[in-house]
């Protein structure tokens, strides 16, 4: 197995680096307004704890972003990361129409990454993603600095949407 010199640190976006509190209302009704939810993402305020950890970690690791956001949100996501001065790095997003649970999609990406890189840490707010990553042997930092959202949790695990 060939490994690059620097390990990678993998950061989630929603409620790890970016606060989604202002757009939770799009998920509270039925049917959920997914277009509105994702369209509001460029206005997400940054979470200072997450940004500080990401920048600090970049001193010893290459940064990789791993989000449940669908691929159609890539441009907005890249612009948000750049606007907040976050380190450059690849952004792994959910394929459009991929509705598997976040714990499954994210673990698949982590396993692919570890084929040729040491995955030093995953930083994520989703407890089920964190549990699955730890069970698979990954080191995890649980991002508990944003208010939890039951609607987002259900969206991530039951509907495979975020």
Overall structural class, as computed from helix and strand content, comes to alpha/beta
CATH architecture: 3-Layer(aba) Sandwich
CATH class: Alpha Beta
Total beta-strand segments: 5
Q: What is the helix content? A: 25-40%
- Main-sheet strand order equals 3-2-1-4-5
CATH level 4 superfamily: HAD superfamily/HAD-like
Strand content: 15-25%
In short:
The chain is α/β, with parallel strands linked by helices and 162 residues long.
3D structure, described in words:
The chain has helices spanning about 25-30, 35-40, 50-55, 75-85, 100-115, 125-135, 150-155; strands at about 10, 60-70, 90-95, 120-125, 140. It is globular. A five-stranded parallel β-sheet has the order 3-2-1-4-5, with helices on one face. Helix 6 links the parallel strand 4 (about 120-125) and strand 5 (about 140). Helix 5 packs across helix 6 (about 125-135). The relative contact order is 0.23. The protein has one domain (about 10-155): HAD superfamily/HAD-like (Rossmann fold), CATH 3.40.50.1000. The longest helix has 12 residues, at about 100-115. The mean pLDDT is about 90. Helices cover about 35% and strands about 15% of the residues. By secondary structure, it is α/β, with parallel strands linked by helices. The termini are far apart. It is built from seven helices and five strands.
């Amino acid at each position: 197995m060939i490994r690059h010199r620097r390990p990678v640190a993998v950061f989630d976006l929603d409620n790890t680096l970016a606060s989604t509190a202002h757009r939770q209302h799009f998920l509270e009704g039925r049917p959920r307004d997914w277009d509105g939810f994702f369209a509001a993402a460029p206005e997400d305020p940054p979470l200072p704890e997450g940004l500080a950890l990401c920048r600090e970690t970049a001193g010893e690791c290459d940064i990789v972003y791993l989000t449940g956001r669908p691929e159609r949100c890539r441009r907005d996501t890249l612009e948000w990361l750049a606007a907040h001065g976050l380190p450059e790095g690849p952004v792994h997003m959910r394929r459009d129409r991929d509705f598997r649970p976040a714990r499954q999609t994210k673990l698949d990406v982590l396993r692919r990454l570890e084929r040729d890189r040491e995955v030093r840490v995953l930083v994520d707010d989703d407890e089920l993603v964190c549990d699955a990553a730890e069970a698979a042997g990954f080191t995890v930092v649980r991002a508990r600095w944003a208010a939890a959202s039951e609607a987002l949790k259900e969206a991530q695990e039951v509907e495979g949407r975020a």
